[in-house]
Write a structure and sequence with these properties.
By secondary structure, the protein is α/β, with parallel strands linked by helices. Helices cover 38% and strands 23% of the residues.
């Protein structure tokens, strides 16, 4: 197992977090900023869209920020901002994929983490056009770490969604295809085999094929995918290998779902993780 990031002494790594900002309902930057900050990282947000709430609420409002992003990032270049990792998630328009590729070119040594947030349970999110889905699939091919759920992996590979239950052999075959397309390391999230467990798989250049499991809880929550990917990157940026990071992300997300169930209106509001941030701080040792 080879760590993808080596932490040096008191140095605080800097992460460009290219996600949407959601006012209510915890997801995206509302998750990434506190999680990665707790891991001792300097999080530099690049908002791909502004949402009043997550899209499971009725009447949500979205403002697409595509038109400001070039000037926003050119201003960073003008003051010599340095970046150690580029972490992208939900995108608002296909042109934003070109923005991310430009960031990659500006910071060629930065770790490229792509959470291809575009679909779940066989359905594409309502703001995603066919053009944006295609662009996101292309972006996935350049990732050092790619973290799709099963629906997103199917879309990237041009397949029909097979349902939540695929065999371990089929999961590994899909991950192999994603690697052949260019993703160096793949974490495939949220597989169900009808055994009362949630299975996550990781495999790539830096890690042998590894499985983690957690008990399946009797409810679903918005934002758990963002939390998983952010917890994974938090572990990576503190110097842990991808097998350890996947285990940490799976356990942290499962624990946060238990915390969430104790909150009012938890199934609508989203995943609650704040009382567990000390576990992220502990990654620093």
């Amino acid at each position: 197992m080879t760590p993808l990031y080596e932490r040096h002494d008191a140095y605080i790594p800097r992460i460009a977090a290219i996600h949407d900002l959601c006012g209510y309902g915890k997801c995206s930057l509302g998750v990434a900023i506190p999680m990665l900050s707790a891991a001792g990282c300097d999080v530099c947000p690049v908002p791909t869209g502004l949402f009043s709430s997550h899209t499971a609420f009725p009447g949500w409002y979205m403002h697409d920020t595509t038109d400001i992003l070039d000037d926003y990032l050119n201003a960073w270049r003008g003051i010599g901002v340095d970046i150690d990792a580029v972490y992208s998630g939900f995108l608002g328009a296909p042109e934003q994929v070109d923005v991310i590729r430009n960031v990659w070119e500006t910071y060629p040594d930065a770790l490229r983490v792509v959470d291809p947030v575009m679909a779940d349970h066989g359905k594409v999110y309502p703001t995603y056009t066919p053009e944006l889905v295609e662009a996101m699939a292309g972006l996935a091919n350049g990732a050092d770490i790619l973290t799709p759920n099963l629906t997103e992996a199917s879309i990237i590979l041009g397949r029909e969604w097979p349902g939540a239950d695929v065999s371990q052999a089929d999961a590994q075959a899909m991950m192999g295809e994603l690697r052949e397309r260019g993703a160096k390391n793949v974490v495939l999230k949220g597989i169900e085999h009808g055994d009362g467990l949630i299975h996550n798989y990781v495999w790539g250049d830096a890690v042998g094929f590894t499985e983690t499991t957690n008990a399946k809880l009797p409810y679903m929550l918005h934002g758990t995918g963002d939390l998983f990917a952010s917890a994974l990157l938090a572990s990576v940026m503190t110097g842990h290998d991808l097998a350890v990071a996947t285990r940490f992300a799976a356990d942290f997300t499962a624990d946060a779902m238990v915390v969430s169930a104790k909150q009012p209106d938890f199934e609508a509001r989203g995943v609650s993780f704040e009382p567990l941030l000390g576990n992220v701080c502990a990654l620093l040792g």
